[in-house]
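Retro notes, item 3 of 5
We never archived the inputs for the F0G complex last cycle. Fixing that now. Sequence and ligand:
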Amino acid sequence: MATKRRKTAADRALAREVEKVTHVIWPGVLERYRPFLPVTSATPVVTLQEGNTPLIRSRALAEKLGPGIEVFFKCEGLNPTGSFKDRGMTVAVSKAKEAGAQAVICASTGNTSASAAAYAVQAGMKCVVLLPKGAIALGKLAQALMHGAQVLAVSGNFDDALELVREVSKTAPVTLVNSVNPHRLEGQKTAAFEVCDALGAAPDFHALPVGNAGNITANWRGYADYYRIGTIDRRPKMLGFQAAGAAPLVTGKRVDKPKTIATAIRIGNPANREGALQAVKESRGLIRAVTDKEILEAYQFMAAREGIFVEPASAASVAGVLKLAKKKFFKRGIRIVCTVTGHGLKDPERAVKMLRMPPTVPVNLAAVLKRMDL
Ligand code: F0G
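Structure as it came back at the time:
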């Protein structure tokens, strides 16, 4: 039986406050930034309400960099499937559906496959993914499988898998949704829009990890759009960071056997090489390498000192900023945005491998108090 609610004036005021925000539902990046995207009223919207990720002000890294330097993390691991790929996937899969495709395909170091698989479910499509055998984080493999994708492990690296899916999509009735699909990059540029919307301006520097080089290309495109229409009056310098064992854009040479613990960016022949180099050149930024040791230090630093758990590849942007800061690269009075691309829970094995397992204690108060280290 319903009981009569007795509302006080304070309750009614509170209810009005709740009312103000509960009807504002974030629609996803395709609706939010529709005029900037290659969609029409005929395009079906396939979305998991991606985007609107937090831009978190750094405490620990900013402190390390010194006074007068502001740092923000664009936390892309808070997208629906745990990485920035969702921004591009909503557009790519919506366009594939509009074109009548029944299936999508991608090669992936893990995150693209998780995202493609999830959006394919939303679209009612099949999804096939080719992964480099034994070289992707367990969480990502679990996602692709749980979303019902057909997963094939290629006994080669990511670059081999990408070449294969490019061939397959030429002959089989399936749409390629890697970042060579132009719709992917269009969607991914919305991350730069969000950064500007949140800061009210562009930052001075924008640091990103670089693998297949799509994301740095896409973010630069976002800044270019806002600059062209006058929403921002200057653009940031783009700073790209590759893992030292997989740094073809730094060395200028394709890497046949890329090596790094940051499996997401273990890529030797980036498909968006030209876009990335152009972004760096036009913005007067740079692309540098960071070692696995530097990546792992930044990975741990982010979790332990900022409270933000990212996957190893994501920490490459942080490692890069730290490395440049040591060389006094940054002056006072500047703002840096670091994109952290994927969630730490994607790769729990790496975290567990790095740390000691917890000690066991009996079910006993004294024992717990004794072992506690406060
Ligand atoms: N960070 C993470 C977590 C990634 O998954 C990737 C790419 C990147 C950075 C690099 O971005 O390729 O646009 O330069 N992952 C792709 C994948 C290759 O298959 O999931 P990029």
